[in-house]
């Protein structure tokens, strides 16, 4: 049986976007599941949209996510090159074949001619579509155009009155009428093939068996099928993924800043790649049971195109943050510290180079907030009380500290603090216990008073640990200022 082969074919126009990452992930999961091959190739023929770093940034983004591939520009493979601009020589025989069989023809229309035609069609209330005016040029007409110096493009001759139907793995039966499709350009006047043409040749030459891509390409598919047929080539299977919508169920725009869309940004903000992979896998795919947390191996085992939805997926930032927190809680504190530390440093909270004591302190600080952290960069806002000069007391906190017991508890605690030989978590526990014995206050009146006095917050992370991290001096200074 032929090898199962899928491909991700981005245009390297920028960073890896969540939509592209999902396509690549689905490709990867299904390739691994079926012991097939996953190819990453680059459609870089549109030089106007080309970004030099686009290739690296796509590959690095995938690598970070934990997706790997079997063939691409970096590791080569049996069907390379994997960059379209390096494959141009491979396309010529197919152009010749289509021209010879009459399935394609040279078109000498200028941009101005085409615009005029479109204008006329629109004025007549028709859908703009190339009229086919160069379909039947006489040798004399061709000669005249050539003499004028016009360079032809090559158009595919769309057969009339045909229904082009295919069984999409996600959308099921899909059909289009050929009469709604005008003869389209397959090679531009500069000799560069267009997307629709190059893509089928690459898919054919790379022996791709299943094409997974976004639904925005659905209307390209009948064009591609007609070309496969005209060339006498087998047609691969297709799976068109529904859109990803933003949280207000509108089409996602790359400019929308309310959601994070680029894989690079997740990395920068300190999301965990395995959480992002898990989240992306659920954008359109639904597992069999209730469970939503999956390792990569589980995803490979359970992923199935039959459970990918026809309806759009909605991008839910809260769900992503929830999921990332699930992974953060399970992770090693050292790993999270490594991700969080640069954010504290960038925010000027900690110096660029840390002493071993400072390193230990940072590790404990991250540990203190690990249960709560949704992504590593959040440490800066969460741990803010450790870095400010003065504590912020809101009305509730002020009311709490105005109660009768507060100065008694704080006075007693201050005595303990000043006399303390060490300021460890255990020592602090004993000190608070001593305050209880001395003052007779316990429970909320004891703990909440100390918490609010030192942090300004009614709720927060482990109190003894927080006091330990604040340190003897800060604790004593903050209480003194209050009293
Ligand atoms: N370069 C196309 C894109 O980025 C690929 C489409 C396809 O997979 O056929 O959308």
UniProtKB/TrEMBL annotation:
Pfam family, one: Anticodon_2
Domain Glutamyl/glutaminyl-tRNA synthetase class Ib catalytic: 4-322
EC number: 6.1.1.17
Chain positions of motif 'KMSKS' region: 251-255
Top-level taxon: Bacteria
Keyword ATP-binding: yes
GO molecular function annotation: ATP binding; glutamate-tRNA ligase activity; tRNA binding; zinc ion binding
Compartments where found: Cytoplasm
Keyword line: Aminoacyl-tRNA synthetase, ATP-binding, Cytoplasm, Ligase, Metal-binding, Nucleotide-binding, Protein biosynthesis, Zinc
GO biological process, one term: glutamyl-tRNA aminoacylation
Residues holding Zn(2+): 107, 109, 134, 136
Motif ('HIGH' region): 10-20
Record-linked InterPro entries: aa-tRNA-synth_I_cd-bd, aa-tRNA-synth_I_codon-bd_sub2, aa-tRNA-synth_I_CS, aa_tRNA-synth_I_cd-bd_sf, Glu-tRNA-ligase_bac/mito, Glu/Gln-tRNA-synth, Glu/Gln-tRNA-synth_Ib_cat-dom, GluQ/Sye
Nucleotide-binding is among the record's keywords: yes
Binding, ATP: 254
Cofactor binding notes: Binds 1 zinc ion per subunit.
Cofactor(s) required for function per UniProt: Zn(2+)
Reaction it catalyzes: tRNA(Glu) + L-glutamate + ATP = L-glutamyl-tRNA(Glu) + AMP + diphosphate
GO cellular component, one term: cytosol
Functional description taken from the UniProt entry: Catalyzes the attachment of glutamate to tRNA(Glu) in a two-step reaction: glutamate is first activated by ATP to form Glu-AMP and then transferred to the acceptor end of tRNA(Glu).
Entry similarity comment: Belongs to the class-I aminoacyl-tRNA synthetase family. Glutamate--tRNA ligase type 1 subfamily.
Assembly information from the UniProt record: Monomer.
Protein's recorded name: Glutamate--tRNA ligase
């Amino acid at each position: 049986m032929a090898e199962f082969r899928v491909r991700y074919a981005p245009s390297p126009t920028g960073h890896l976007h969540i939509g592209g990452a999902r396509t690549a992930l689905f490709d990867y999961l299904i390739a691994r599941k079926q012991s097939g091959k996953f190819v990453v190739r680059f459609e870089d023929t549109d030089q106007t949209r080309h970004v030099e770093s686009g290739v690296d940034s796509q590959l690095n983004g995938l690598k970070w996510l934990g997706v790997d591939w079997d063939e691409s520009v970096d590791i080569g493979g049996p069907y390379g090159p994997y960059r379209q601009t390096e494959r141009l020589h491979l396309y010529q025989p197919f152009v010749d074949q289509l021209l010879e069989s009459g399935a394609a023809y040279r078109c000498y229309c200028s941009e101005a001619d085409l615009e005029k035609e479109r204008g006329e069609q629109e004025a007549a209330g028709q859908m703009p579509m190339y009229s086919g005016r160069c379909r039947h040029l006489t040798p004399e007409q061709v000669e005249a155009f050539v003499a004028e110096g016009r360079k032809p493009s090559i158009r595919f001759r769309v057969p009339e009155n045909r229904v082009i139907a295919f069984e999409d793995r996600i959308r099921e039966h899909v059909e289009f009428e050929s009469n709604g499709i005008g003869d389209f350009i397959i090679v531009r006047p500069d000799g560069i093939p267009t997307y629709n043409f190059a893509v089928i040749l690459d898919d054919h030459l790379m022996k791709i068996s299943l094409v997974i891509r976004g639904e925005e390409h659905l209307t390209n598919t009948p064009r591609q099928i007609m070309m496969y047929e005209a060339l006498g080539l087998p047609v691969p299977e297709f799976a068109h993924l529904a859109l990803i919508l933003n949280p207000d169920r509108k089409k996602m725009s790359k400019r929308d800043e309310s959601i994070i869309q680029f894989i690079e940004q997740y990395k920068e903000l300190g999301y965990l790649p395995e959480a992002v992979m898990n989240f992306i896998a659920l954008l359109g795919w639904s597992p069999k049971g209730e469970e939503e947390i999956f390792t990569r191996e589980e995803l490979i085992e359970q992923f199935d195109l039959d459970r990918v939805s026809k309806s759009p997926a909605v991008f839910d930032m809260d769900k992503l943050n929830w999921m990332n927190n699930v992974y953060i809680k399970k992770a090693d504190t050292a790993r999270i510290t490594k991700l969080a530390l640069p954010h504290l440093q960038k925010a000027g909270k900690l110096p660029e180079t840390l002493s071993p004591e400072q390193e230990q302190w940072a590790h404990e600080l991250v540990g203190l907030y690990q249960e709560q952290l949704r992504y590593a960069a959040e440490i800066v806002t969460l741990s803010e009380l450790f870095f400010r000069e003065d504590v912020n007391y809101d009305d509730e906190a002020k009311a709490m500290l105005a109660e009768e017991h507060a100065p008694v508890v704080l006075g007693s605690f201050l005595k303990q603090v000043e006399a303390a030989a060490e300021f460890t978590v255990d020592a602090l526990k004993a000190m608070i216990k001593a305050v209880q014995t001395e003052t007779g206050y316990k429970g909320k009146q004891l703990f909440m008073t100390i918490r609010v006095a030192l942090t300004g917050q009614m709720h927060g992370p482990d109190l003894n640990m927080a006091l330990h991290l604040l340190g003897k001096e800060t604790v004593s200074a903050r209480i003194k200022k209050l009293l």
